[in-house]
Amino acid sequence: MQESLPQPEGKDIHLDQIVCLAENAAETIEKLRAELHRREQRIKQLEQSEAQLRQAAQRYLRMKAQLEAQSEATAGFAANGTTYPTFDEAFDAAYPGTVPE
Q: Of 34, 66, 90, 95, which has the highest C-beta tally within 10 A?
């Protein structure tokens, strides 16, 4: 007859407990993978938005530099029937929804 090895008290782990732990671990891994995928997609969206904003900002700065370089710029910039001393002020007046708070 084989003699079973003595188990330390309080440390007895049964096979069904091990299976349960493995199932819980697998479920947790799947949840983490799904969350990782969701976050990777969000990062891609943010990177695309950043690229679009950079292009728009560069376009705006080129347009601003070109307009400010014209001799008429010394008289100011008109927007909505009012003349403003700077391009930025005129732009903000013309496009109030774009002014940061």
A: 90
Amino acid sitting at position 2: Q
Cβ-contact 68, 45 below 8 angstroms = no
Strand partners, 82: 79
Q: What is the pLDDT of residues 19-75, one digit of tens each?
A: 999 999 999 999 999 999 999 999 999 999 999 999 999 999 998 898 888 877 778
> With a threshold of 0.85, does the pTM exceed it?
no
Q: How far apart are CA 65 and CA 59, in angstroms?
A: 10
Place of tokens 């080129």: 62
